[in-house]
Amino acid sequence: MRTYLDCIPCFVRQALEAARMVSADAAIHERVLREVLRWSSEMDMSQPPPAMGQRIHRLIRALTGVNDPYRPARERQNRMAGDLLAEFQAEIAAASDPLEMAVRLAIAGNVIDMGVHGDVKKSAVRSSLRQAMREPLAGDLQEFRRASRKARVILYLADNAGEIVFDRLLIEQLGPARVTLAVRGGPVINDATRADARAAGLPGSLEIVDNGSDAPGTLLPDCSDEFRRRFAAADMVVAKGQGNYETLSRERRGIHFLFKAKCPMIAEHAGVALGAHVLLCPQAGGG
Predict the structure, then answer these.
(1) pLDDT score recorded for residue 284
(2) How are strands ordered across the β-sheet holding 154-157?
(3) Percent of the chain whose pLDDT exceeds 90
(4) SS3 259
(5) Helix, strand, coil in percent for the chain, rounding step 5
(6) From CA 92, how far away is CA 100, in angstroms rounded?
(7) Does residue 76 share a domain with residue 50?
(8) How do residues 93-113 score in pLDDT, each as one tens digit?
(9) Do residues 256 and 238 touch, judged by C-beta distance below 8 A?
C-alpha cells in the first residue's frame, strides 16, 4: 500500500504525541515536528506509511536518548489484556465454532493501537471483544479454515502489545507446535517485542522470532535474512494489524490479513467499511 496525502496529518499527530510523551522539552517537540513536515514534503509517496513511521520514531529516540519510550504503555496493555484473558478463553471453550470465535477475538484485539489512538482503556477493549462476537467478518473465514488445516508451517506476524494476548487465543486453536510467532526486531510505538510475547504467556511449544526491523509493520527489505527465509518458506502467513497490511499488501503470495479497519485510507484500499473486522487473503497486492 502506498502513502496517501491523508496520511500526512496522521504522521504529524503521531510524531507530536510521541515527542510530548517522552519529553517535556518544547524545543524537542518543535524539532520533531519541523523534521516530519520537511520529510513529508520530500517523501516517496509510493512507499508504505510505516516507512515514515520508522523514521519518525528513530528521530524521537535519537533526540531524547530514550530507547523504548512506549515500554510502560506496552507493559500496562499486556496487564490489561491479561486481566481479560480467562473471560474470553471461557467464551472460546463454550463456542460452537472455537476457531471462528478465536479469529474474531484476535481481530478485535487490534483496537489496542497507539499509532491510531493515543491511549486505550480496558473498557474499550472489553467492548470491542464483546462486539466482535456478533460483528460480521469482512472476508472468507472458510478459506482461512482450509488454509490452516493444510498448513504444516504457519508464520504468525504479531502487531501490538496487549493485542498479542488475544493472538494467543488464535494460536492455541491453530496448534502452537506448527506456529512461529514473529515480533518486531526493536521497539517502535506499542508494537510487540520478544518481551511482550513472553508476557503474554504463550505456549511453551511456540517458537518466537523477531523480524530484525524496528518499522511499525513488516518492511521486508529492512528485515533480517533469517526472517525473510522463514517468510518465504511458510505454508501460511497470518499478518495481524494495519501496519502489516500496509507493508505487505503488495506481496505476490497469499497472506491472511487480520485487522480492524481503523483508518479511512486502509479501509478504502482493502475495499471494506471503516470499522470493519477484516479477514482478507488477496493473492497478489495492489497499490
Answers:
(1) 44
(2) 137-139, 277-280, 256-260, 236-240, 154-157, 179-183, 207-210
(3) 77
(4) strand
(5) 55, 10, 35
(6) 9
(7) no
(8) 999 999 999 999 999 888 775
(9) yes
Confidence of residue 287 (pLDDT cuts 50, 70, 90): low
pTM, rounded to two decimals: 0.93
Into how many domains does the chain fold?
A: 2
| Inside any domain, residue 287 | no
| Domain hosting residue 56, numbered range | 7-64
Asked whether residue 157 falls in the same domain as residue 275, the answer is yes
Mean pLDDT, residues 144-170? 95
Cβ atoms 191, 184 nearer than 8 A: yes
Does some domain include residue 286? no
For residue 134, is it within any domain?
yes
The residue among 37, 18, 41 whose CA lies nearest residue 29 is 18
Q: Which residues pair with 156 in a beta bridge?
A: 181, 238
Residue with cell 511453551: 204
